[in-house]
Design brief:
- This protein has 3 helices and 14 strands.
- A hairpin with a 2-residue loop joins strand 11 and strand 12.
- Keywords: Oxidoreductase.
- This is Flavin reductase.
- GO terms for molecular function: FMN binding; riboflavin reductase (NADPH) activity.
Length: about 190
């Protein structure tokens, strides 16, 4: 080398870790053998907000929805959000067929809404009051904010689908604290 240093040879380089190399007390190979209950317990230590994804089923012209805690903003330009839905959801095909869906950010007083929308086979909107967002999707009374979207992409991811949706309209709805899901239970945020 021009500065008097020596060039490294291939034998000087540290080899990349292989699949059987140890990292701490665990081997990398053990990553594929993670127990589902342990996975849930560990990831349950990450607190999330809770949303209700709502729409009007075009086949029945009735509101429907589901609860989700896997929701995030994706992009500012263009404005995109994402949420996850289980492959086993019987509600998602109805929502997918709607021209728009609405993400309702639930308040800490709406655990009952979350549980009702998570129940299988029930009338999801029995006893719930709502108004229509500009595109007609249900904005649930008591939600602290709403985001009306059009679904743009669906990605298969294990036993779920990752849904990417373009934000069309959004606004605050009611004052209040968000509903939080943590370690398998619901609560509020005092901050």
């Amino acid at each position: 080398m021009a500065d008097g240093g020596t060039a490294a040879t291939a034998s000087d380089a540290t080899p990349a870790p292989g699949p059987d190399d140890r990292t701490g007390d665990r081997t990398r190979a053990s990553v594929t053998a993670i127990d589902q209950a342990r996975f849930r317990a560990i990831l349950g230590r990450f607190a999330t907000g809770v949303v209700a994804i709502t729409g009007v089923d075009p086949a029945t012209d009735r509101p429907t929805g589901l609860a989700a805690n896997a929701f995030t903003s994706v992009s500012l330009d263009p404005p995109l959000v994402a949420f996850c839905v289980a492959h086993t959801s019987s509600t998602w095909p109805k929502l997918r067929a709607a021209p728009t869906v609405c993400v309702n950010i639930l308040s800490d007083r709406q655990e009952h809404v979350c549980r009702q929308l998570a129940a299988r086979g029930a009338d999801k909107f029995d006893g719930l009051t709502w108004d229509g967002a500009p595109g007609g999707s249900p904005v649930i009374d008591g939600a602290i904010a709403w985001i009306e979207c059009a679904v743009e992409q669906e990605h298969v991811a294990g036993d779920h689908m990752i849904i990417v949706a373009r934000v069309l309209e959004l606004d605050r709805h009611h004052d209040g604290a968000p509903l939080i899901f943590y370690r398998g239970g619901y609560g509020g945020f005092a901050g």
